[in-house]
Design goal:
Radius of gyration: 26 Å
Strand content: 5-15%
Distance between the termini: 71 Å
Shape: globular
Strand order of the largest sheet: 1-4
Number of strands: 4
């Protein structure tokens, strides 16, 4: 009888914790006792399965997250968790994808910078003079917050360099800022649903899921250059959150809409301030 190779036959002792392991897996640490040098395909599968979560879990998670508002949060709260990707991993994965897509597709759609350089000279009509000290204008989601005027060195930069600095600052700090806003989003929910018996962790879970959905939808809107598709995605993005709130926090529809409006007003204000803070930090810390 041919003897199996030591590299492929089950070991009697676990190589990881030195526990007696007569079977295929160690009863103490769970490591397989059948060891071999992994192939390139197995390396790829391990990366995809454990770091990108691109398995059956992901498709089940996406199906609920995209097409059934609030269902994924309800499943997690009900204890049915193994079949789905963890909430934090869902958020981080699609947050990274969204900012990467936004950065390499068309960042000017979201964030634009321009400077008014030409103005009528006081020497006479028809004469145009360049105003080198004209203030820079930053447009974020259609709004134009004013940057601090004491940054004389920044104001003296050419418009192209200002554009690059602002955009680089946004993409460097915005992902961290958005993640730091998740506890604030959950706090807003906690305040809006005082007396509901929900714990703060449940609100945080809902914040991760709802913002992950927003990242997916906005990424698709950036990738698909079809107006009717973007319009449909925008309408679904607008309707998704109140629908999810109504399912996760059972209450009257009118009360849900009122809470949604308050939540959006508070969160949009916080998000605008966070984006401006990201740009300001990048300008202040530039080398």
């Amino acid at each position: 009888m041919k003897t199996a190779s030591p590299s492929t036959s089950p070991a009697s002792t676990c190589h990881n914790c030195n526990t007696n392991a007569p079977g295929n897996f160690c009863s103490a640490c769970g490591q397989a006792t059948t060891l071999h040098v992994p192939s390139a395909r197995e390396f790829l599968h391990e990366f995809v399965a454990h770091y990108v979560a691109l398995e059956g879990k992901l498709w089940r998670t996406l199906a609920l997250l995209l097409f059934r508002p609030g269902a994924l949060s309800n499943e997690y709260l009900a204890g049915r968790r193994v079949r789905y990707v963890e909430p934090l991993r869902v958020y981080l994965t699609f947050s990274i994808l969204f900012f990467a897509i936004l950065k390499f597709s068309s960042p000017d759609v979201f964030l634009t910078v321009h400077s008014q350089k030409a103005q009528v000279s006081a020497h006479g009509p028809g004469q145009i003079a360049e105003n080198k000290s004209s203030p820079m204008q930053v447009s974020i989601l259609g709004q134009t917050p004013t940057l601090p005027r004491q940054w004389q060195d920044f104001e003296q930069l050419p418009t192209a360099e200002k554009q690059k600095l602002v955009v680089d600052s946004f993409f460097h700090y915005a992902p961290y800022a958005m993640f730091c806003l998740m506890p604030l989003f959950a706090l807003f929910l906690k305040i809006l649903y005082l007396g509901s018996g929900r714990r703060y962790g449940e609100h945080f879970l809902f914040a991760l899921h709802s913002n992950a959905f927003a990242f997916i939808t906005m990424a698709l809107m950036s990738l698909i250059p079809v107006d009717i598709v973007r319009l449909a995605l925008g309408a679904w993005l607008l309707a998704y959150l109140p629908w999810a709130m109504w399912r996760v926090y059972p209450s009257g529809k009118l009360a849900t809409v009122c809470r949604w409006l308050l939540l959006m007003a508070a969160y949009c204000l916080a998000m605008s301030l966070a984006i401006v803070a990201c740009i300001a930090m990048g300008v202040m810390l530039r080398h």
